[in-house]
């Protein structure tokens, strides 16, 4: 996980979760600039603007925590909501526990994207492969 802090809020990025929807760039392009290094310009917007945009990340690759609250990634929902994205992943919003076939459990918060196309290299999670194969469903 990579972290970018302005002293008030820390934006976290887990690149292996990113499905490259572009929601971050489309919503706050002055902060999220994927062709630059570092790609998150933490001082280009207010903390509130960045938090609002991070909450819109469909894969939960982006998260945040407030500096004075410790390293807890904020959850956007206590309730679980499932959304089938046209030609894309199954999105689960809220706090969940994912139990894997080997028996271990991983806790997820905010948003989780699950593969529906069968081509993800990060199953059961989506890695954006549906775009490459032209998945429809």
From TrEMBL:
Pfam families: Fer4_19, zf-CDGSH. It comes from the Bacteria. Keywords: 2Fe-2S, Iron, Iron-sulfur, Metal-binding. Residues 93-136 form the Iron-binding zinc finger CDGSH type domain. InterPro entries: Divergent_4Fe-4S_mono-cluster, FeS-contain_CDGSH-typ, MitoNEET_CISD. This is (4Fe-4S)-binding protein.
């Amino acid at each position: 996980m990579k972290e970018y802090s302005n002293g008030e809020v820390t934006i976290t990025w887990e690149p292996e979760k990113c499905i490259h929807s572009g929601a971050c760039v489309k919503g706050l392009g002055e902060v999220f600039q994927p062709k630059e290094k570092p790609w998150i310009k933490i001082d280009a917007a207010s903390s509130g603007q960045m938090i609002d945009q991070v909450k819109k990340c469909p894969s939960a690759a982006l998260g945040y925590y407030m500096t004075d609250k410790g390293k807890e990634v904020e959850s956007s929902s206590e309730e679980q909501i499932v959304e089938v994205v046209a030609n894309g992943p199954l999105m689960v919003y809220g706090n969940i526990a994912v139990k894997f076939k080997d028996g271990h459990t991983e806790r997820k918060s905010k948003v989780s994207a699950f593969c529906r196309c069968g081509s993800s290299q990060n199953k059961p999670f989506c890695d954006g492969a549906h775009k490459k194969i032209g998945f429809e469903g």
